[in-house]
Amino acid sequence: MGIYEQLVVISFLYPPSLSRFYCDYCDTYLTHDSPSVRKTHCSGRKHKENVEDYCQKWMEEQAQSLIDKTTAAFQQGKIPPTPFSAPPPAGAMIPPPPSLRKFITFLS
Ligand SMILES: [Zn+2]
């Protein structure tokens, strides 16, 4: 029996969610799960620190991935070098087609 099968059997025999409460933020199990134990844990200073830590890292990851995507797009020439500046007004950079230019000349 491989380690994976063993883990499947163990998790089947001892489902953590039924017997114990696992805290993702603290990466730890609460040995006795009850509403009051959870409440005590979640109002604890260590847990709050871990949650803050987690949020901080998550936001940093989001910001970093945004920077990475922008940099990659820039390197591939998909976006102009100043991605955060406002785009020019529509049509300002594009000269009107000859037919329209003739029409404008006719009107003026
Ligand atoms: Zn916790």
From TrEMBL:
<dbReference type="GO" id="GO:0030627">
    <property type="term" value="F:pre-mRNA 5'-splice site binding"/>
</dbReference>
<dbReference type="InterPro" id="IPR003604">
    <property type="entry name" value="Matrin/U1-like-C_Znf_C2H2"/>
</dbReference>
<dbReference type="GO" id="GO:0000395">
    <property type="term" value="P:mRNA 5'-splice site recognition"/>
</dbReference>
<keyword id="KW-0539">Nucleus</keyword>
<keyword id="KW-0862">Zinc</keyword>
<dbReference type="InterPro" id="IPR036236">
    <property type="entry name" value="Znf_C2H2_sf"/>
</dbReference>
<dbReference type="InterPro" id="IPR017340">
    <property type="entry name" value="U1_snRNP-C"/>
</dbReference>
<dbReference type="GO" id="GO:0008270">
    <property type="term" value="F:zinc ion binding"/>
</dbReference>
<dbReference type="Pfam" id="PF06220">
    <property type="entry name" value="zf-U1"/>
</dbReference>
<keyword id="KW-0687">Ribonucleoprotein</keyword>
<keyword id="KW-0694">RNA-binding</keyword>
<keyword id="KW-0479">Metal-binding</keyword>
<dbReference type="GO" id="GO:0005685">
    <property type="term" value="C:U1 snRNP"/>
</dbReference>
<comment type="subunit">
    <text>Component of the U1 snRNP. The U1 snRNP is composed of the U1 snRNA and the 7 core Sm proteins SNRPB, SNRPD1, SNRPD2, SNRPD3, SNRPE, SNRPF and SNRPG that assemble in a heptameric protein ring on the Sm site of the small nuclear RNA to form the core snRNP, and at least 3 U1 snRNP-specific proteins SNRNP70/U1-70K, SNRPA/U1-A and SNRPC/U1-C. SNRPC/U1-C interacts with U1 snRNA and the 5' splice-site region of the pre-mRNA. Interacts (via N-terminus) with TIA1 (via C-terminus); thereby promoting spliceosomal U1 snRNP recruitment to 5' splice sites.</text>
</comment>
<protein>
    <submittedName>
        <fullName>U1 small nuclear ribonucleoprotein C</fullName>
    </submittedName>
</protein>
<keyword id="KW-0863">Zinc-finger</keyword>
<feature type="domain" description="Matrin-type">
    <location>
        <begin position="21"/>
        <end position="53"/>
    </location>
</feature>
<dbReference type="InterPro" id="IPR000690">
    <property type="entry name" value="Matrin/U1-C_Znf_C2H2"/>
</dbReference>
<dbReference type="InterPro" id="IPR013085">
    <property type="entry name" value="U1-CZ_Znf_C2H2"/>
</dbReference>
